[in-house]
Design goal:
This protein has 113 residues and is α/β, with parallel strands linked by helices. Helix content is 29%, strand content 22%. The chain has 2 domains: 1-33, no CATH class; 40-112, no CATH class.
């Protein structure tokens, strides 16, 4: 009897808030069962950086978005910067060498030579 009650309790908790996450056909937890904080770092796709900045004038460290005008990802960098800002992930070698250590730590840069 106890195992039947435990099984019913288990089944009632599958895929619900404060319950037990399930897996989809690919073996992943469905996005609908993830907390917002786990998926809110991606802010979407924007035609220009100006539109991204207009949509998110402020953000949180690790937030990122794709800008189609530059075909690059932009990251919110607030790691010890004088002014937190969106920055293009793809930069020239000269620009990279001019960054401070905290600036480098804030974004996973791709250096284009």
């Amino acid at each position: 009897m106890a195992s039947a009650i435990s099984y019913e309790l288990y089944v009632s908790k599958l895929g619900v808030a404060n319950g037990v996450a399930t897996l989809d056909g690919s073996g992943y937890i469905p996005v609908s069962q993830l907390p917002p904080s786990a998926i809110e770092t991606y802010k979407g796709e924007y035609a220009t950086s100006a539109l991204l900045i207009a949509a998110y004038p402020t953000a949180t460290l690790a937030d990122y978005a794709y800008v189609t005008a530059t075909s690059t990802y932009w990251y919110w960098n607030e790691a010890l910067l004088p002014t937190a800002a969106w920055v293009d992930q793809q930069i020239s070698e000269a620009s990279y060498l001019a960054l401070t250590a905290p600036e480098i730590a804030g974004v996973p840069y791709i250096v284009v030579v």
